[in-house]
Amino acid sequence: MIRLILVALYLFLFLILSIPVLIAEHFIAKRNPAHRDRLSKALVGWGFRCIAWLAGTKLIVRGQENIPADSAALFVGNHRSYFDIVLTYSHFPGITGYVAKKEMLRYPLLRDWMRNIHCLFLDRDNIKEGLKTILAGVEEVKRGVSLCIFPEGTRNKVNDTFLPFHEGSFKIAEKGGVPVVPMVIVNSADIFEDHLPWIRSATVVIEFQPAVYMKDMDRHEKKNMGAHVSGLISKRYFELKGEYFPALSAKQ
Predict the structure, then answer these.
(1) Facing residues of 97 across strands?
(2) Alpha-carbon distance 55 to 192, whole Å?
């Protein structure tokens, strides 16, 4: 109960007290967009780390050496928790936005910070608008801004399962000419979703796998990229779960 109150209060105060910063960033962006990007990344990253600390989360991060240093990337991960974004953001080395559902536009201030870190808003029910978002993503990665997407399309509500990865998600990497970095997230739902409405202390493992370069694939492999990456993530997911959470694995 206490952790839930602390996290909710912190988020509320961050959004309210950061209004002057948002106004300042609006003017900074007109003269120096890159400086605005760096400032937004630092502030949002700090805010997310504070939320993780208040939630009592122990985070284990592996495989950061697999993130390409010479280009933007499309980070692709499994998705079980709201905390997936909170926990991953600070571990992307460059400016990185998320592909989020368009419903997030309903929330003032939150949507402004999301825009400032280059998030894109996807209409999952409108093919035409969805295509526009994908094309916007292509332009972002060509400019050197990485993106993170959860291609299951929504939070998976069943532990140790994976929804099909939407193939269209990978067009950003294919058309933008950037590598795909599979991202395995283990046990994030144990923070919140597994025992709603309470937040509890939990250990979460995030591992970045070796980058996949679509330019080196044939047409058939590109067409089935979603299934390929989902397979890589699911295989490593169960390996990591057995390594870090053997008691949970034994119950399966």
Answers:
(1) 147
(2) 9
Vertex 108 angle, CA 104 and 113, to 5°: 75
Is 70 exceeded by the pLDDT of residue 249?
A: no
pLDDT digits (tens, 9 = 90+) for 23-63: 999 999 999 999 999 999 999 999 999 999 999 999 999 99
Question: Is the pLDDT reported for residue 247 higher than 70?
Answer: no
Q: Where are the alpha helices (DSSP H) in 161-244?
A: 171-176, 219-223, 225-244
The CA distance from 214 to 228, in Å, is 11
Tokens of 165: 């990865």
Dig out the tokens for 70 from the structure: 């010479």
Q: Is a pLDDT exceeding 60 seen at residue 131?
A: yes
Euclidean distance between the first and final Cα of the chain, in Å?
A: 29
| Eight-class DSSP state of 187 | S
**34, two tokens:** 């890159």
Calculate what percentage of the chain has a pLDDT beyond 90: 85
